[in-house]
Input
Amino acid sequence: MACTLLVTGGAGYIGVHVLAALVEAGYQPIVLDDLSNGDRRAVERVARFTGADIPFIEGDVRNERLLDAVLAHQARAEQPVAGVIHLAGRKAVGESVADPLRYYDVNVGGTVKLLRAMARHGVRRFVFSSSATVYGAAREMPVTERHAVCPTNPYGHTKLVAEGVLRDVTAADPGLSVAVLRYFNPIGAHPSGLIGECPQDVPANVFPYITQVAQGRRSHLAIFGDDYDTPDGTGVRDYLHVMDLAEGHVRAMQHVLRHPGLLTVNLGTGNGISVLALVRAFERVSGRRVPYRIAPRRPGDVAAIWADAGMAHRVLGWRATRTLEDMCADGWRWQRMNPQGYATPPEPVPSGIAARAVRGRRTVTSLVPLLGGHNEVGRV
Ligand code: UD1
Output
């Protein structure tokens, strides 16, 4: 029987790609998501194109009664949760400056409550979504995991505090096994074009903004600064394909299933790409123009940051394999096929994965009715 894994935040952008990679690798994911920034239809689409049955629970990760009910239900059903991939959290820098308590409550409090529930149910394998934002304005490039951490905003502080919680609980309990993944800049989409990034408001990040300009939904991209100390003056980041990132979670889970202790690892390509280079690559691949204007620097931005991805390769055997062109082509396919995001009726599954999709008749089932009386506590 497939090993069951709980994915919090599994209906979000990263989450649904992680689901696809987990099913591909032979795992059985279960999703817990409060849908504050995710979409149940995205999970349904993954179920459809993978042919998997993916249980979905709508609820908040801070709801301990719900966590207990889910973990107990799985144990009773003899499909105990073997590990947790914790992606649920808030991630908008500006919002975190305006409402830091919310960020501490969800990102730190949610992690603590989840770890407590796991302890009550004997679940001891944990993969955590952290961010390269913990490095702040890094001094040495590429950034290794040993580089000093110094976040520059409340969002980054909450990720660092959660990392500290994980360090301390792992030190206290030698049987616990934790991987902290410091993501660089995930972009793009699953090659099927069926799942991708779906910002609820005006995109805050550069790549979804570019795809919306190419689509004609926005007039132009504002490039935040062309006077940085970088080759073309625009900001440099380590963009990685979201499916590479998703596969990194699979490798990290495989690692924690075998090795106790704490592993903190960067997930990036090791390549620094400027905003202008990203725009040019996207134009080449999509055949669309992306008009842009140079705007003032965005407060809090760093000039350049990219990963030393060596540890992920040495310890996890993981390395990003997709190119910048793949990221652009797959991101553009998602945008073109889904101009209204998940509200767009999905096109037939592309031929490459049609054979597998035939098995996808069962879509998402909900665990909530099985939990007896927990429908109400499913939301906080
Ligand atoms: C941002 C967050 C980071 C978070 C990540 C989550 C900030 C300062 N950092 O990373 O903490 O983990 O998102 O996805 O918000 N750019 C433009 N025009 C735009 C948008 C961005 O020129 O409309 C530039 C930025 O100045 C930067 C690059 O594009 O040089 C990447 O920006 P973005 O996609 O927002 O990612 P980060 O700032 O690296």
In short: The radius of gyration is 20 Å. Residues 91, 93, 131, 133, 155-156, 185, 204-206, 209, 221-224, 235, 237, 275, 298, 300-301 surround uridine-diphosphate-N-acetylglucosamine (CB under 6 Å).
